[in-house]
Amino acid sequence: MRKRLVIGILRETKEFEKRAPLTPHDVSWLIKKGIEVEVESSASRIYPDSQYKKAGAKIVNRFNKANLLIGIKEPKIKDLYADKLYMIFSHTAKGQRHNIPLLKACFKNKITLIDYEKITDIHGKRLVYFGRFAGICGIIDSLYYFGKKLEWRNIKNPFFSIKPSREYKSLKEVKASFAKTDYYIRNKGFDKRLSPFIIGITGHGNVSRGVQEILSLLNPTEIHPRDIVRFVKHQKGIRNKLYKIVFFREEKFRSKKRTGFYFEEYLSDPQNFESNMDVYLPYLNMLVHTSYWDKRYPKIVTYSMINKLYKSRPFRMDFIGDLSCDVNGSVELTCKATNPETPTFTYSPKNKRFVDGYNSEGITVLAVDNLPAELPLNASIDFSSLIKEYVYQIAEHGVFDITNHTALPKEIRNATILQNGKITKNYEYLKKSL
Questions:
Q1: pTM score, two decimals?
Q2: Are 165 and 136 in contact (CB under 8 A)?
Q3: Would 135 be classed as within a structural domain?
């Protein structure tokens, strides 16, 4: 008879990280099912040790019996436990250069590594994610810092009642704050220099849905991209509404040969396409970028595009919330990742220079690379609900040879990058990195 695995909840070591992969409530649920749980003591975790102890877990400084280790961000190499099974966001599946040392260390220590990012359905849709909260925190912070930039420009705006997302304790507080913003928009409206106020959103995944969830608190009116030029021209006097545009692929990109957009061709030959956003950017007040990108695909905002558009009029866009945060990626202006203490920088097309902060002329960019950590309580509850059944299944079956154990969910087997220190079949392309 197989012996159940003992779950260990890792202490997070990344700066600003307070999230927990499993809540005390879900730990209690696991313990009632006969699964032992150890928790590495942490003073920074959103849930104090005492709540896990009350749930029935053992609080330890180092794991004693735990062999299924559950965390969020990558652990430090020096803290790795050999011969264990890890479930984390390892950021190694794409062969990311900065985490190759971690992959090598897991290989050396005969670790079995399951990456949340690779837990997907048959269509490749992620089943375990923080994307919703990246969107929620990203739009809150974007509106807050955009409001601060407008104040610096001596332009009154409705966003004064919004705080940075990390200053809220819960989504309930966020909703109360945004109710004040909505009231201001309806009763006092936007400055005429900002009207009509339009937010453009790229992407339709979990991050985009999080953005739109929060924007819905401001009762936006959605407009179609093809109507934007006529809309801005004729709606300048409409000051008591917020508008949004959600861009589809066929609106974001165009064929270099001007032969139209065909999704199948875009997937097979992305080099034949370029960004179409130069048509829309001059009319937006803010762009919120949430789309997935890798180097095969065209960039959506480039330096040359911005430098050219900035010289023309009208050009209204003051702010980009790059929630995907791919450095030098789809939004080329994202020259670096930022953190909650220094979240923004500004690009000046006039002198082609960057300045930290929002209080300078140009386009301000928010590019915080760990946004969900800013609402750690709600993000932890949401995430724990997504992984608890997977964690239970692995612990209950008591096996390390995950890919060979067909009783385990296929999505878990497919998300196993290393098994006892060996690269699995799905990830053989990573061998060249070791």
A1: 0.91
A2: yes
A3: yes
